[in-house]
Amino acid sequence: MAVSYRDDTPFDDSDHTMQQIAEAIRHKMYGVDVREAIAQGFELMYKKIAELEGDDDGTDAKNELAQLEKRLNARIDRITMGTDDTAIRNVVEAILKEKGVI
């Protein structure tokens, strides 16, 4: 497919869709406009990823994951040591059901 690099209009710094950015990369005549389109594409991707993670640098998502891991490890420790009330109740209930008591 032949591509024409004849679009000599400047690529401004307004908000563009990824489709507009891709078209600018394909068709802009001057390297400065192509580089600007590429830069805006990366910025838009970073912005979208940050929105998915919850903030600009992803620290909220990382902090939540660290807290979840800490709580999970604490629960595993309680179960292993036999001090987790929920686990103890579940085991006792299972044994009583197995023996036909309940």
Provide a descriptive summary of the structure in words.
69% of the residues lie in helices and 0% in strands. It is rod-shaped and about 85 Å long. The chain is an all-alpha fold. It has four helices and no strands.
- How many DSSP H or I helices? 4
Largest sheet: none
Question: What integer is the average pLDDT?
Answer: 84
Helix content: 55-70%
Secondary structural class: mainly alpha
What pattern of helices and strands is seen along the backbone?
HHHH
**Weakly predicted, low-confidence segments:** none
Dominant shape:
rod-shaped
Amino- and carboxy-terminal Cα gap: 75 Å
- Please state roughly what percent of the residues sit in beta strands, choosing from under 5%, 5-15%, 15-25%, 25-35%, 35-45% or over 45%: under 5%
Could you tell me the number of beta strands?
A: 0
The radius of gyration over CA amounts to: 28 Å
What are the salient characteristics of this protein?
102 residues
List the helices and strands and how they pair.
Blueprint: H1 18-27, H2 31-53, H3 59-81, H4 85-98
Summarize the structure.
The protein has 102 residues and is mostly helical. Helix content is 69%, strand content 0%.
